[in-house]
Fold this sequence. Notes:
Keywords: Plasmid. The chain is mostly helical and about 300 residues long.
Amino acid sequence: MASKVVACIRHHDWRRNTDLIALRQKGYTPYSRMFDRSFQPKPLRITARSESREALSALSLVLAANCDYSPDSEYMFEVMLPVEEMARRMGVLHVYDNGRKAYDVLLNALRVLEQLDYVVVHRDRDSDSGQHKPMRVFLTERFFTSRGMTVESVRQWLHNYRQWAIAAGVAESLREKYERHQLKMARLGIDIDRYHSLKNRLKSIKRWVVSPELRAEKQRIIAEIDASLVGHAQRRASRRSSDTRYQQAWWRWTASDACTPVMRLKMESALKTEFPHLQTTDAEQYYRLLLERAGVPLP
Length: 299
């Protein structure tokens, strides 16, 4: 799956990308000015510089090569790399003498892809620098369609990838890897459970890539499982009720006007004296004998 996406990205010409042309005509908005209402983006020339195009291509290749393509994941197309590692693989990570790390080339290119709606970026406070930095990156459907990939081809590639994972016996390990990643994000405090708009956007991406037939099949299977569970619970309740019918009959009779508390205690005490361990070893036989001695018809 990753090799097919990477092959499409390698042949992409940013000079002919209509989304990038429209964005440059409108002007970039840096993340630092995104919430500044007074900021007015300045239009740029249509064609980006070669350095900018190379940065966009390098970042796109890193994102595509390290993306989670499993259709079983709750949120699809997450890039399973921290931003610092992305910068290292792009070759734009700079480490100063004091240990501070910088990767402005990556951040600028990532912001461009975010404005193009090719990626969804979740930012949070970095514990080391105290700044808000990209923590999790997800690819959107436009990341694929802008490179000439159709939804049908992406669905087919994902289906083939899933079939390969099942046949190779790695589907379970991939699922466990994704679960470990989710737990790691939760431990680091950068999970997205509180960001409802972000979760809705990620769910819409999965709805785009998962075929309607597969969604209908999944709903049918879920309905069948729910019906089976309900039937199983009803059978267990019925079996439990039949297993304690003498006990329930005794309780109903002792609660009626035909029995007084003194009568109940006297009969139970006499039976316990005659059979000391019967109530613990065979409770139904114990209550059946009580009903017979009280002259109550057995249910």
